[in-house]
Amino acid sequence: MKYLINIFATIIIVLIMLNTNAAFAVEYYTDVDTSSNIFNIYVGTVSFSGNYTTAEATDEIGVFVDDGNNGKLLVGSCNIGVEGNPNMYRVYIYSDNDTGDEIKTGAYHDDELFFQLYKSSAQPAILDLSESHFVTETTQGFTEPTFPLKFIEPQLIPVTVGYLNISQHYETLDVLAKYVSVPALNVWGQIIWILIIISSCWRVKRKETY
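The structure assignment produced for this chain is given below.
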């Protein structure tokens, strides 16, 4: 009976998630092949400390697997924020749509999953997440996360893993570095910095003269 209750709870949770939308659309991790109808769903919250306390509209999560050629293949992505909860994420991780061909387009069963966090206002903007960034939480109806994170081939209904909560601390320099480097990215910025340096040198020279 308990087994049937867990299955029923899982079905209800999946139906609710399929009928709720992400708060924003992804703009960075966009190259995901979603043609397969086999997928895992990872659910959790994201907490920031230091110079950030809440998620921004441009914050995204990308999930990768080994592409078989010493590289990484993007198999899932999402923005942070779902309806009613700006710090929650829900990422769909897609299976390969045809394991019989030589082109890998998605995750295989038991593939290790690698999570990345993208925050455009931080420096560096891309952060590879390790086990130290995660805090797991047991939730009825969900598959409990275990490390290393793996793609699980579902049997009847999509595998929903949760809660896999993410925690990241940003130091002051992580934020300021972006703004310090901005003037060097364009011609006008370089001109402004050169004028500032020349002006400073001239003022120092003038003080020495008088």
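Interim note for the steering committee: Residues 2-18, 176-184 have pLDDT under 50 and may be disordered. The CA atoms of residues 51 and 172 lie 6 Å apart.
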